[in-house]
């Protein structure tokens, strides 16, 4: 019964059911002076929550999750907007000891979880 309810929830929402695995508020690892209270502003925190990836002055809807076999990672399609522009891209999120790796084509960002 419980599995049926989860499957129905997935079909109805269209959102990534596992995006919550990465939810949190973050800052770039090794950086100093970042404000973990303000999300999306210059020197403000970065966030993954409610099916969205929120960066500095941009926000992306995360859709079409694909679990990466044998890894603590998922691949998403992003629909992003910020600074008056929109774009699409792919991103892989992978858990790390201290937060999450945000992996884009040719680039890996190491985000540390805010306390």
In short:
The protein has one helix at residues 2-13; strands spanning 24-28, 35-39, 44-49, 52-55, 58-67, 73-82, 85-95, 99-104, 107-113. It is mainly beta and 115 residues long.
Rg? 15 Å
| Topology as a string of helices (H) and strands (E) | HEEEEEEEEE
Number of strands: 9
Largest sheet: 8 strands, antiparallel, barrel
Overall shape = globular
Low-confidence stretches: 1-18
**Which strand order does the major sheet show?**
1-3-4-5-6-7-8-9
The total of helices stands at 1
Distance between the ends: 37 Å
- Helix % is 10-25%
Strand proportion, as a percent range, falls in: over 45%
Look at the helices and sheets and give the structural class: mainly beta
Residue-averaged pLDDT: 84
Detailed description of the structure:
The chain has 115 residues and is mainly beta. It has one helix and nine strands. The chain has one helix at residues 2-13, and strands at 24-28, 35-39, 44-49, 52-55, 58-67, 73-82, 85-95, 99-104, 107-113. An eight-stranded antiparallel beta barrel has the order 1-3-4-5-6-7-8-9. The longest helix is centred in the N-terminal third of the chain and has 12 residues, at 2-13. The N and C termini lie far apart (37 Å).
């Amino acid at each position: 019964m419980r599995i049926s309810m989860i499957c129905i929830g997935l079909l109805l929402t269209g959102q990534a059911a596992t995006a919550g695995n990465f939810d949190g508020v973050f800052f770039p690892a090794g950086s100093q002076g970042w404000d973990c209270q303000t999300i999306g502003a210059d020197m403000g925190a970065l966030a993954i929550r409610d099916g969205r990836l929120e960066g500095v002055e941009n926000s992306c809807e995360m859709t079409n999750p694909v679990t990466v076999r044998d890894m603590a990672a998922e691949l998403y399609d992003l629909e992003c907007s910020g600074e008056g522009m929109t774009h699409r891209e792919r991103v892989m999120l992978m858990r790390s000891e201290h937060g999450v790796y945000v992996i884009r084509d040719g680039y890996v960002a190491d985000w540390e979880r805010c306390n």
